[in-house]
Amino acid sequence: MLHEQPRSRRFLTEAASELAAIGIPVLRFDFYGTADSAGHGAELDFATMRDDLTRTVHALRALAHVDRVALLAWRAGALPTWNWLRHGGEVSSVVLWEPVLSGTEWIAELEEADRHERCSPERYTGVLPQAADFDDGQLMGYPVSNAFRVQCAGVDIRAGDTPGRDVPMWMVERDGDRTASLTRDRTFVLPTDAPQFAGSTRMDVSLFMSPRMQHTIRGIGEALLEGV
């Protein structure tokens, strides 16, 4: 989401292609108000995201003629996914890829990074702004409403605020990651050369697929096909 989305777009396309290559129908989408979808970023909120998730699951079932659907959520995508499940969203399994666990901490981290970027000598030449001006309603260069920030802050996956129905939960994480304390049904450990979604705003560190990542993603796909 936000600044991580354009950097990771090619990687997610390649990940979807790897899954499709082993026989898994894949439907990628952008939330309303983001990336290639219609709408303005300020209109994005959990209600529109829940609607997008529901429509996408229904569309995949109809187009691919499948009963079981797995939802893969990367990074902050875990927050609206968790909220959707809490509101009755139904899938066969959920795969969280290095999920943002605390919406409050994530928003705080983004606001701090945003404050730095607005006054960064690496981004601007000449006379630099002396103080960040947040009156434009943007966060990391994207329009973000106060409502969306509050909604994100209201989700804490670590708090045991589990979805209302029993959905198998898989975790994709780095070795020793802080998500290790979370209850899950299966874990996939990323290789050491796995791309870093967070920590940069530069497009010259866009994320791409490595042979080891291909192997990891295919392993996830094969497990999904087996339904284990």
Keywords:
228 residues, alpha/beta, Rossmann fold, four-stranded parallel β-sheet, two-stranded antiparallel sheet, 6 helices
Molecular structure report:
The protein is an alpha/beta fold. It has one domain (4-226): Alpha/Beta hydrolase fold, catalytic domain (Rossmann fold, 3-Layer(aba) Sandwich). The protein is 38% helix and 10% strand. It has a four-stranded parallel sheet with strand order 1-2-5-6, with helices on one face. A two-stranded antiparallel ribbon has the order 3-4. Strand 1, helix 3 (78-86) and strand 2 (93-97) form a beta-alpha-beta unit. The mean pLDDT is 83.
Radius of gyration: 18 Å
Mean residue pLDDT: 83
So, CATH architecture?
A: 3-Layer(aba) Sandwich
The domain tally reads 1
The number of helical elements comes to 6
Poorly predicted regions are none
CATH topology: Rossmann fold
Sequence of strands across the biggest β-sheet? 1-2-5-6
Percent range of helical residues: 25-40%
* Secondary-structure element series: HHEHEHEEHEEH
Q: So what's the CATH class?
A: Alpha Beta
Query: Proportion of β residues?
Result: 5-15%
What separation lies between the terminal Cα atoms? 29 Å
Largest sheet: 4 strands, parallel
Topology:
Blueprint: H1 4-21, H2 46-64, E1 70-74, H3 78-86, E2 93-97, H4 103-118, E3 138-139, E4 142-143, H5 146-153, E5 169-173, E6 186-189, H6 211-226
Parallel strand pairs: 1-2, 2-5, 5-6
Antiparallel strand pairs: 3-4
Helix pairs in contact: 2-3, 4-5
Summarize the model shown:
The protein has 228 residues and is of the alpha/beta class. It is 38% helix and 10% strand.
